[in-house]
Amino acid sequence: MAKHKVTMTINGKSVTAEVDSRLLLVHFIRENLDMTGTHIGCDTSSCGACTILIDGKSVKSCTYLTVRADGADITTIEGIAVEGTNHPLQKAFHDQHGLHCGFCTPGMIMRSIDLLKTNPNPTEKEIRWGISGNLCRCTGYNNIVKSVQQAAAEMAKEKEASV
Ligand code: FES
Ligand code: FES
């Protein structure tokens, strides 16, 4: 199996490694880097549990080759809290009981970060559509929607205060 040298930034740190050409990014993150917050639910791009940000865009890392991420700037769930303070989405999922077992939660949050970046004030319908590629078998989605709404309001407040 051919090996390739890759270098990427993960949660602000530069990482260089030699990887097999067929190594999937989710396996690189979980197994090579020991960062297990990114989950694997299906391995077929169906559930969204493996969602991370690549150059700011949410991507399902179970169907993304590690070699393709060479040079990329990657963020995983482990990288979104700032100096010990949870991201507004992490806080909102906690406040609104947006999780039960928590298996889908890292992917839901990473997807929602991208959603709120492109649409900071989404309607309920837009939230439901925006997270439609991420499956949750526990919550019935209502509290996830409320979590995204709380985070959107919180982030808008933060933005206003910083101007
Ligand atoms: S594990 Fe990637 S979409 Fe399900
Ligand atoms: S909280 Fe269990 S799958 Fe979503």
TrEMBL record:
SUPFAM superfamilies: 2Fe-2S ferredoxin-like, CO dehydrogenase ISP C-domain like. Gene3D superfamilies: 3.10.20.30, [2Fe-2S]-binding domain. Keywords: 2Fe-2S, Iron, Iron-sulfur, Metal-binding, Oxidoreductase. InterPro entries: 2Fe-2S-bd, 2Fe-2S-bd_dom_sf, 2Fe-2S_ferredoxin-like_sf, 2Fe-2S_ferredoxin-type, Beta-grasp_dom_sf, Diverse_Oxidoreductases. Residues 4-80 form the 2Fe-2S ferredoxin-type domain. This is Carbon-monoxide dehydrogenase small subunit. It comes from Maribacter orientalis. GO terms for molecular function: 2 iron, 2 sulfur cluster binding; metal ion binding; oxidoreductase activity. The keyword Metal-binding applies. PROSITE patterns: 2FE2S_FER_2. Pfam families: Fer2 (PF00111), Fer2_2 (PF01799). The keyword Iron-sulfur applies. It comes from the Bacteria. PANTHER family: OXIDOREDUCTASE WITH IRON-SULFUR SUBUNIT.
